[in-house]
Amino acid sequence: MKKIISTVLIVNIFLSGCSAFVPKTEALNVNCSEEDATLQVNGQMYRGSAQPEVERNKPVSIMCTKPGFYPAQKTIDRSLSGTGIADIVGTFIFLLPGIGLFTPGAWTLNEDYTDVNMVKKEQK
């Protein structure tokens, strides 16, 4: 029994706070439906499409604009990642994994690829 407990503790120590070792950013592929539209991802400007690295623990704000079209906006939210869930489970056995829950690596974006559709304004 002591051997099982010590094995569980050793494994938990090595896996504790796994989220702390996950990169704090994540690649996001964004495309506006109009190629020459101005794309903004969290305030950074691009042309038509981009693959920016964004923080995984914060929602991402996207906006596409082009003359003659209505501005199109989208927000991509985040959720707890598989590593974050593993940290929660590990915290019940050994408290140390809980540290990982306070790092960006405990989160993931709900989408890693998105298209933003723009609607043309009617001519009068």
Question: Which keywords apply here?
Answer:
single chain, 124 residues, alpha+beta, 11 strands, rod-shaped
Cα-to-Cα separation, first versus last residue: 81 Å
List the total number of helices. 2
Estimated helix fraction: 10-25%
SS-derived structural category: alpha+beta
Q: Sheet with the most strands?
A: 4 strands, antiparallel
Main-sheet strand order equals 4-3-7-8
Low-pLDDT parts are: none
Rounded mean pLDDT is 84
What's the gyration radius in Å? 21 Å
The best one-word shape is rod-shaped
How many extended strands? 11
Strand content bin? 25-35%
N-to-C SSE series? HEEEEEEEEEHEE
Please tell me about this protein's structure.
- Helices cover 21% and strands 33% of the residues.
- With 124 residues, it is α+β, with helices and mostly antiparallel strands.
- Strand 7 and strand 8 form a beta hairpin.
- The mean pLDDT is 84.
Layout of helices and strands, plus pairs?
Layout: H1 2-15, E1 25-27, E2 29-32, E3 38-41, E4 44-47, E5 49-50, E6 53-55, E7 60-65, E8 72-76, E9 78-80, H2 82-93, E10 107-109, E11 113-116
Parallel strand pairs: 2-11
Antiparallel strand pairs: 1-6, 2-5, 3-4, 3-7, 7-8, 9-10
Summary, kept brief:
By secondary structure, the protein is of the alpha+beta class. It has helices spanning 2-15, 82-93; strands spanning 25-27, 29-32, 38-41, 44-47, 49-50, 53-55, 60-65, 72-76, 78-80, 107-109, 113-116.
